[in-house]
């Protein structure tokens, strides 16, 4: 009876050993061995969604796995960033994070992640888009110095729009007012499109608008770009002087970078950083981005960590000093 049971027992032990070996091999399989999700905090179709898709295509080739875009808009991108922060730290859920990670902790303290510096792990920076200082054609200014002089002579008279209260375009406006020592009237809109339309119609004096958002007004001749908010001129409009030339040190841009949940293993972070670097260094992608006023950024995890830290300090101080609150 006992001898009759020996063979099945041996087979059972062998089967268990095979299962354990297979499980161990699967657990140690090189990353990635299945599709990666890239979470975007904006609806499909916009410039951020488009850039995320373009970057993911190049990264997918480098990784040897497909990257699936998932759009999770809402709460100033907090829906997307919270989703990633609370996901498993295995590298398969990646955030297309934005400057809002530096803004939201001070602007809307109830939103999560409350501390992106500790709840997310940076992979590397992706893109940067400056703002044009866009003015309606009937406003009698043609450069930053003239705008400052006009605003000081007419405190509160200039109606300056933004894509929403607490948006990056609003904060760049407040930063400009603060550094220039001027007072303007803020007019928040629900998005950049209606704001630009009012500049075209002459109902709004000006705004900080991305090159993409400003293009309708510039193409029609109903608006004029008098400066750019990056520290250097951009390829799309190289003749446009940076605000920093008149106000040294001024910088206010929209940026993005890739993040994963905190505690993601270093080898996985390194793999994703390498793939992102391949995308941001791709000549064709860089050329297409430049046509839209977008600059591809280089650097790894430390570069993005330093950027997030410095931006959190700048925007946090401005939000507190100006007593800005989220919508």
Oligomer, anyone? single chain
Percentage of residues in DSSP E strands: 15-25%
Main sheet: which strands, in order across? 2-1-3-10-4-11
Cα distance spanning the termini: 78 Å
Q: Please report the number of helical segments.
A: 12
Q: Low-confidence spans: pLDDT under 50, at least 5 residues? A: 1-5, 20-26
Largest sheet: 6 strands, mixed
Cα Rg: 24 Å
Description:
The protein has 327 residues and is an alpha/beta fold. It is built from 12 helices and 11 strands. The chain has helices spanning 2-27, 47-63, 78-85, 100-107, 116-119, 144-153, 168-180, 192-201, 211-220, 266-280, 283-290, 301-321; strands at 36-40, 67-71, 93-98, 120-129, 132-136, 159-162, 185-188, 206-209, 223-228, 254-261, 295-296. A 6-stranded mixed beta sheet has the order 2-1-3-10-4-11, with helices on both faces. Strand 1 (36-40), helix 2 (47-63) and strand 2 form a beta-alpha-beta unit. The longest helix is centred in the N-terminal third of the chain and has 26 residues, at 2-27. The radius of gyration is 24 Å and the shape is globular. The chain starts with a helix and ends in a 6-residue tail after the last helix. The model is unreliable at 1-5 and 20-26 (pLDDT under 50).
Question: How is the topology of this model organized?
Answer:
Layout: H1 2-27, E1 36-40, H2 47-63, E2 67-71, H3 78-85, E3 93-98, H4 100-107, H5 116-119, E4 120-129, E5 132-136, H6 144-153, E6 159-162, H7 168-180, E7 185-188, H8 192-201, E8 206-209, H9 211-220, E9 223-228, E10 254-261, H10 266-280, H11 283-290, E11 295-296, H12 301-321
Parallel strand pairs: 1-2, 1-3, 6-7, 6-8
Antiparallel strand pairs: 3-10, 4-10, 4-11, 5-8, 5-9
Helix pairs in contact: 2-10, 4-12, 8-9
């Amino acid at each position: 009876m006992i001898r009759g049971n020996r063979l099945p027992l041996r087979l059972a032990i062998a089967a268990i050993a095979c299962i354990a070996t297979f499980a161990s091999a699967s657990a140690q399989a090189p990353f990635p061995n299945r599709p990666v999700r890239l979470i975007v905090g904006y609806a499909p179709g916009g410039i951020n969604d488009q850039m995320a898709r373009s970057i993911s295509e190049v990264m997918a080739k480098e990784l040897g796995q497909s990257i699936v875009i998932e759009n999770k808009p809402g709460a100033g991108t907090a829906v997307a960033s919270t989703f990633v922060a609370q996901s498993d730290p295995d590298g398969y859920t990646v955030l297309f994070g934005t400057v809002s990670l530096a803004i939201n902790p001070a602007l809307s303290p109830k939103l999560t992640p409350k501390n992106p510096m500790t709840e997310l792990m940076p992979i590397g920076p992706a893109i940067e888009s400056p703002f044009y200082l866009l003015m309606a054609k009937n406003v009698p200014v043609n450069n930053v110095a003239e705008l400052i002089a006009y605003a000081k002579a007419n405190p509160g008279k200039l109606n300056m729009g933004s894509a929403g209260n607490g948006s990056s375009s609003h904060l760049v406006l407040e930063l400009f007012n603060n550094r220039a020592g001027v007072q303007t009237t803020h007019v928040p809109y629900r998005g950049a499109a209606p704001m630009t339309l009012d500049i075209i119609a002459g109902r709004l004096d000006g705004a900080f608008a991305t090159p993409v958002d400003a293009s309708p007004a510039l193409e029609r001749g109903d608006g004029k770009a008098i400066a750019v908010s990056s520290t250097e001129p951009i390829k799309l409009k190289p003749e446009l002087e940076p605000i920093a030339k008149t106000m040294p040190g001024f910088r206010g841009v929209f940026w993005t970078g890739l993040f994963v949940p905190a505690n993601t293993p270093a080898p996985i972070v390194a793999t994703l950083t390498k793939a992102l670097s391949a995308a941001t260094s791709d000549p064709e992608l860089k050329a297409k981005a430049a046509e839209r006023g977008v600059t591809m950024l280089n650097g790894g995890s430390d570069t993005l960590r330093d950027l997030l830290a410095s931006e959190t300090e700048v925007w946090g101080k401005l939000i507190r000093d100006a007593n800005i609150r989220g919508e």
